[in-house]
Amino acid sequence: MRKYLIFPGRLDGDLNLLPEWRNWIENWLYDLNERVERGCISSTECVQGALCEIALHGGTASDWLSVERKLLRDEECRPMAYSHNYGRRLSHFEGQWRQMTVYAIYNSFWLSELQGEKNIAKYQRLIYNLIQPDGFIYNPSVSDTQRRNRMKSELLMSLAMGTELLSLEKMKRGMRERFEAVLACMPMTNSISAEYFRYQALKNIGCLRQYPEGLGKLLRKCEAFEGYHDFCVLDKTDDYMGTKKRTQHDVSIHSPLIAAMAQELSCLGEECLRQGVREAA
């Protein structure tokens, strides 16, 4: 099974789940299946459903690809982030729920590959059409927010997802260098998740040597007793306003997922060395 970008490592059925965890996941899946029956689901929830079933049973028990195709496609069969009924629940969302986001494309591809289908070309075409003049990958019709005001973790996640799909076959001429320039020119962020996605994107295009300095300092700042926070509150500013006005009440909470990302980032030096050896060869 292809690993899912957001989760470091691979997820399989060999997990030793505590009874309390298993019970919680089973109840969550029951509620999710009820929402599917009402046609009220998001693209991310489809993937979550599949991942939960893999954790419980070692494989999927439901046809999540059929759910995605039935409820999360538009008239042209393009992947959508939300189903129609899900969008109706969102306050003042009107027609905005019809969003073809990068993660919706990635999720659709991941689910199709999970079912054994191999049709990368159509997903790559969708990604190519979302590459912006500055080299980032996102859908400006979803939001007209200027690139400099977009969340760094979201920008880099979309870039990592897009480059993963594009790297499965030979990229168009000059595309790899374009992505390399974007990732190399962006300064170190204050977020572990953002830096994890940068790492994945650089790995996708074979350019880990372009990873910026300062990762060790960031990891030390984000250490918590039980693991890691995603960011250091003292350094956090609002991506839109560029100030601390909207972040002054933020509280960092340690996260097992961020701790796993931090652990993978800690192996960056070894990865760079291996890639350097391959390039030299």
Walk me through the topology.
Blueprint: H1 19-37, H2 43-57, H3 64-71, H4 84-89, H5 102-114, H6 120-128, H7 152-166, H8 175-185, H9 192-204, H10 215-221, H11 256-265, H12 268-280
Helix pairs in contact: 1-2, 2-3, 2-5, 5-6, 5-7, 7-9, 9-11
List keywords for this structure.
281 residues; mainly alpha; 49% helix
Question: How many DSSP-defined strands?
Answer: 0
Q: What is the makeup of the main sheet? A: none
CA(first)-CA(last) distance: 29 Å
Strand percentage lies at under 5%
Structural class: mainly alpha
Mean pLDDT: 86
Rg estimate, integer Å: 19 Å
The residue ranges in which pLDDT falls below 50 over 5 or more consecutive positions are none
Oligomer: single chain
Q: What is the overall shape?
A: globular
Characterization of this structure:
The protein is mostly helical and 281 residues long. The protein is 49% helix and 0% strand. The protein contains twelve helices and no strands. It has helices at residues 19-37, 43-57, 64-71, 84-89, 102-114, 120-128, 152-166, 175-185, 192-204, 215-221, 256-265, 268-280. α5 runs antiparallel to α6 and α5 (102-114) crosses α7 (152-166). The longest helix is centred in the first third of the chain and has 19 residues, at 19-37. The protein is globular. 30% of the residues are buried. The mean pLDDT is 86.
